[in-house]
Design brief:
eleven-stranded mixed sheet; alpha/beta; Spore Coat Polysaccharide Biosynthesis Protein SpsA, Chain A; two-stranded antiparallel sheet; 13 strands
């Protein structure tokens, strides 16, 4: 069974100033999602599920239908695409939305939107992050090795030094793990940057310490997760508990790390932390765009990708 790629593309890109999921950054106008799908197909994925907002679903579907019309999987079958929407009111029965709330419920809520269309191991990625070929091969291999398992998931961890921005400080979730390579926690750090003394520093949001020296090789989360279908039921149950506790709050969001951490603490799941050598890059602000364009052009010039990616 081929794994499925679940693309989180519902973010409106308010800080970026537009729909960055559809911004052409490659030499022939390719989006970052285009490169992710190209790498996923090479790694053996068979289906792509997009999580989008209803307001731009039609435009996304039209663009995908035109661009990927002739794309096939590694065994020659047409690559399948499914679109599902994340909206504020898509919550379990018995709960109501605070009328003043404006944003949906976060990444774990977004993943739950796909529970009716995914029945095989799957990998979750952000639509505006470049993860690299090796990451998709590592994630696909994990999925193929866990077709029959339950309660065992994975996080693809990136070395911190491979995720830094040239534009300034970034926020990263630094991972901790046990001797067996199982994730034990993720601590968010803010303002992470490589400084003139050659040391990476950041602010620990849990301890409150600022300007803490961080290991360059420390593994951090860039929201690339591997799950088996049983994840949906457990995450759905946790979401009910989340809404019971926080449903009336205007900005509280149900994130994937929260869901996974809840499962681990309850003894219902474990999460393998698998390392990738790939370099991450992405666009958060408009100022990030020129650097991403240059990096993609360099990869094409080095023969890593063709241009255009799809003909």
């Amino acid at each position: 069974m081929k794994p499925t790629l679940l693309v989180l593309a519902a973010g409106m890109g308010s800080r970026y100033g537009g729909l960055k999921q559809m911004d052409g950054l490659g030499p022939s106008g390719e989006t970052i999602i285009d490169y992710s799908i190209h790498d996923a197909v090479e790694a053996g994925f068979g289906k792509v599920v997009y999580i989008v907002r209803e307001s731009f679903r039609e435009a996304m579907e039209a663009a995908v239908k035109e661009k990927y019309a002739g794309v096939t999987t590694v065994d020659g079958e047409p690559l399948r695409f499914v679109f599902v929407t994340q909206e504020l009111d898509k919550i379990p029965e018995g709960f109501t939305v605070n009328p003043e709330r404006q944003k949906p419920w976060g990444t774990a809520h977004a993943v739950l939107m796909a529970r009716e269309v995914i029945h095989e191991p799957f990998v979750v990625i952000n639509g505006d992050d470049f993860y690299g070929k090796a990451s998709f091969h590592i994630a696909a291999e994990w999925c193929r090795a866990h077709e029959e398992t339950k309660g065992q998931y994975c996080l693809v961890g990136f070395q911190l030094e491979n995720t830094l921005s040239e534009s300034g400080g970034v926020s990263r979730g630094i991972c901790s793990y046990d001797e067996e390579g199982h994730l034990t926690g993720i601590v968010e750090h803010l303002n992470i940057a490589l400084e003139e003394d050659g040391v990476v520093y950041g602010d620990n949001t849990v301890s409150g310490e600022t300007h803490v020296a961080l290991e360059k090789k420390a593994l951090c989360s860039m929201n690339m997760w591997g799950f088996t279908p049983d994840y949906f039921e457990m995450s759905g149950d946790i979401f009910v508990s989340f809404l019971t506790a926080f449903g009336n709050e205007l900005k509280k969001e149900y994130y994937i790390p929260y869901a996974v951490d809840s499962m681990i603490n309850a003894g219902k799941a474990s999460c393998d932390l698998v390392s990738t050598p790939s370099r991450w890059f992405g666009v958060t602000f408009k100022e990030d765009r020129p650097a991403v364009v240059a990096k993609l052009a360099s990869l094409v010039a080095d023969g890593v990708y063709p241009t255009p990616l799809y003909k």
